[in-house]
């Protein structure tokens, strides 16, 4: 570690004057042209984190569902998880340090976090298909190498694939092989095993239309298809050959506009789904015989999966957390089986090591009928990405469950009916004046806001409304639901006026 070399290289990745960025809900995210210094510095930070944890650390270059001009970066911790909160603070500090202070801040972090600088470091890097991603991941590599870290650049990967690689590398091969082929093999084997038992092999379950948001999911799904094609045939739309990333397509577009993506031909009652730009979110939908569009979001995905697991297990309590995968993921880890999904389609199911061992043991021992259930569960464990929510893995789980249970997409949709709801975003001078508690369902500040919301909510039937500052954009999010669409719209509108 040579301070002069760091200074020299840092100057080649200089921070624009006065630019201040925050490590937000899912890392740094902004216009790509403002991120070069952040990438270089996250390369530096990944080396420190790797030395401190004595493990491989991941760096993913992506801005998920944001427009193509944006980019972003997040660090992945040893078990494939999101970066620990105390290191998010270090990341923000380092990203915002003035040029002359970069070395000093690095040394401060090393001291605070008791990093042994003699320790070796290994970093793995992945990126999405944005035009800026290749160059920006090169800046990450500059940061890693200038501090003497070793690295492996996976090139194009979905975000959950990078989480998977990190987890594999730190569990000495027990979780799987840290290659894309290893990932395809592991998931596809579980999928094919699981669906073998589905006797209703009607054509209905054989094909699925997938909108890939013109992102990296298209490349990876296409590569993977031969591995599972005996069980499922996927037809890809918005595969990046024509359209622009996330533009009028993808999970975020479909969820927030409640309409089909451009470029997808939907016939009535066909099962369709959308990934987002880095393939860590998925939502399903179909159009009915009257041509009406029906969205099946993360909540309903969670319901399908938990009702499936419930038949094999017992009781399912429900908990809420703050917005953001990192919060949900940690909550889910407290249980033997933790199912988590955000309505926007990000989620997975986590199994504790103890539960996994027990199930895999029982799959060998039990007598016939119970053994089948245990084997099924064992395959489900292998099919879910245990490191992060994963559109490809979730898609295969959902397809397997629908086939096994003989459920049509309409029957799945009919598990429950959503109340009419509306989400709005409100621009305010400073969104941080709003603080919340109770998993972001109650506003604590500014004074009087929660009381105002309570009064508005009382005016409508079956109503609720929440406000919270966004963790990814400079806006306040307003959510309202009520007995009719008109009421939900009007409540959302009234609440957004109260936010000013
Ligand atoms: C990010 C998060 C997602 C969260 C969303 C909220 C990850 C991988 N993604 O996309 O979990 O729902 O931000 O954004 O952590 P918001 O605060 O702007 O609504
Ligand atoms: Zn994403």
Automatic annotation (TrEMBL):
Entry binding sites for Mg(2+): 64, 276, 278, 280
Names of the cofactor(s): Mg(2+)
Stretches assigned to the Alpha-D-phosphohexomutase alpha/beta/alpha domain: 51-90, 118-167
Amino acids binding substrate: 342-344, 468-472, 477
Pathway assignment: Nucleotide-sugar biosynthesis; UDP-N-acetyl-alpha-D-glucosamine biosynthesis; N-acetyl-alpha-D-glucosamine 1-phosphate from alpha-D-glucosamine 6-phosphate (route I): step 2/2
UniProt cross-references to Gene3D superfamilies, sorted A to Z: Alpha-D-Glucose-1,6-Bisphosphate, subunit A, domain 3, Alpha-D-phosphohexomutase, C-terminal domain
Family affiliation: Belongs to the phosphohexose mutase family.
Described purpose of this protein according to its UniProt entry: Catalyzes the conversion of GlcNAc-6-P into GlcNAc-1-P during the synthesis of uridine diphosphate/UDP-GlcNAc, which is a biosynthetic precursor of chitin and also supplies the amino sugars for N-linked oligosaccharides of glycoproteins.
PANTHER family in the cross-refs: PHOSPHOACETYLGLUCOSAMINE MUTASE
Protein name, entry field: Phosphoacetylglucosamine mutase
Species this protein is from: Equus caballus
Encoding gene per record: PGM3
């Amino acid at each position: 570690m040579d301070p002069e070399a760091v200074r020299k290289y840092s100057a080649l990745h200089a921070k624009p004057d006065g630019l201040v960025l925050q490590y937000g809900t899912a890392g740094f995210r902004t216009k790509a042209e403002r991120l070069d210094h952040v990438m270089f510095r996250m390369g530096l930070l990944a080396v420190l984190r790797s030395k401190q944890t004595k493990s491989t650390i991941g760096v993913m270059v992506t801005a998920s569902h944001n427009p193509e001009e944006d980019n972003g970066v997040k660090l992945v911790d040893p078990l494939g998880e999101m970066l620990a909160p105390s290191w998010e603070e270090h990341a923000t500090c380092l990203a915002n340090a003035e040029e002359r202070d970069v070395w000093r801040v690095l040394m401060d972090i090393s001291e605070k976090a008791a990093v042994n600088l003699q320790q070796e470091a290994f970093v793995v890097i992945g990126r999405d298909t944005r035009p800026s991603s290749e160059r920006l991941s090169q800046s990450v590599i500059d940061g890693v190498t200038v501090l003497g870290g070793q690295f492996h650049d996976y090139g194009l990967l979905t975000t959950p694939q990078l989480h998977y690689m990190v987890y594999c590398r730190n569990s000495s091969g027990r979780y799987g092989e840290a290659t894309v082929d290893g990932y395809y093999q592991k998931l596809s084997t579980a999928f094919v095993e699981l669906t073998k038992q589905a006797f209703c092999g009607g054509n209905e379950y054989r094909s699925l239309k997938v909108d890939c948001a013109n992102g990296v999911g298209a490349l990876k799904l296409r590569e993977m298809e031969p591995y599972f094609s005996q069980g499922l045939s996927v037809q890809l739309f918005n595969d990046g050959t024509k359209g622009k990333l996330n533009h009028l397509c993808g999970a975020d577009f479909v969820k927030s506009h409640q309409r089909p993506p451009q470029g997808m031909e939907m016939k009535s009652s066909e099962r369709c789904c959308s990934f987002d730009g880095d393939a860590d979110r998925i939502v399903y939908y179909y159009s009915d015989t009257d041509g009406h569009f029906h969205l099946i979001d993360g909540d309903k995905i969670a319901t399908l999966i938990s009702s499936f697991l419930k038949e094999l297990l017992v009781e399912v309590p429900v908990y809420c957390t703050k917005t953001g995968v990192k919060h949900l993921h940690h909550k889910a880890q407290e249980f033997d089986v933790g199912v988590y999904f955000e309505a926007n389609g990000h989620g997975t199911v986590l199994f504790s090591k103890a539960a996994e061992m027990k199930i895999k043991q029982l799959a060998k021992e039990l007598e016939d009928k119970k053994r089948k259930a245990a084997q099924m569960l064992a395959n489900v464990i292998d099919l879910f990405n245990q490191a992060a929510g994963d559109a490809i893995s979730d898609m295969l789980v959902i397809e397997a469950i629908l086939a096994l249970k003989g459920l049509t997409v309409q029957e799945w949709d009919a598990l429950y009916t959503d109340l009419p709801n509306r989400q709005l975003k409100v621009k305010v001078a400073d969104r941080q004046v709003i603080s919340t508690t109770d998993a972001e369902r109650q506003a604590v500040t500014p004074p009087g806001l929660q009381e105002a919301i309570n009064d508005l909510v009382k005016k409508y039937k079956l109503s609720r409304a929440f406000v919270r500052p966004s963790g990814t954009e400079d806006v306040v999010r307003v959510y309202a639901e009520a007995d009719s669409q008109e009421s939900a719209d009007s409540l959302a509108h009234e609440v957004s006026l109260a936010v000013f």
